[in-house]
Write a structure and sequence with these properties.
Length: 329
Amino acid sequence: MPEFIVEQVRNGLRESSHRVSAAVVSADGSLALSWGDPHLVTFMRSAAKPFQALPLLQDGAAERFHISPRELALVCASHNSEHTQVDLVLGLLERLGCSESDLACGPHPSLGLTYSIPPVARDLLCPPSPVANNCSGKHAGMLALARHRGWDTLGYQQRSHPVQRRITEELARWAAVNVSDIGQGVDGCTVVSFALPLSKMAGAFARLVVSSGDAGQTVVKSMTAHPELVAGRGRLCTALMQAYNGNVVAKVGAGGVYVAAIKDQGLGLCLKVEDGHSGAAMVAFLALLDSLALEPAPSQILAQFAEMPVLNTKDVQVGALRVAHPSSI
């Protein structure tokens, strides 16, 4: 397969290389384009969140607890911990009869400080806490599913809990694999993390955007109508969905994973920067989208993500992250 490399250059010299594997897949599972190893098995991490949200709709929990489109977008989110985002999660927890102490996730610094260009102003962000965890919406959604199905909320994050078994079954259906084919580990937020080939992740996203079912379309519409909640200020997922007015659904996963789908092309795409570099993943993701002839070109309207500056401690640019030239994609 052709190479796909993001390089870090300093004073014109390549300082480091980040190898990328990527797959572009249609809803029928056929591989349209690929780079590196399109069947590389890796963890989806937070890119699984749209599928983790689907049982809320299919099992009736969203209707029972009056989960709004904005709240559903947060269930799918890796949010910045902005005050608006956290307040929505708190409101949903209260409606469930739960509190922050029921969340299994722990505190961490805001993603808005590390994934945004430029970093989000600190006064817009909540301090670290479980409810300000970027995955708190997902966890609230899992608590809603447990409440609705009459399952114990304690231990909802564990692999053996019926919440996690139900979600695994749902992901298997969209990825067109057997449950036993899905690798499992523990994610940073303590819930189950799923491992699949890149091609299977891309296929699942393709099926999601072309689905005629109410649940799939509701998830897509919630994310694309409220992209500011799915990530937040300065974040690539939010910027992409805002730029393409519902035609692109995008979701970051930790460890150098990005997944998206293009609705009018019926394609899903997934990439993994093999060393997990998050900045290289953003640069690679924009280049991958460029290769699919979106109009206008993503690198033109979102140039801040196409080549990212490397700064010194005085915030002076001393290098750049970019797709290797001559272009490897």
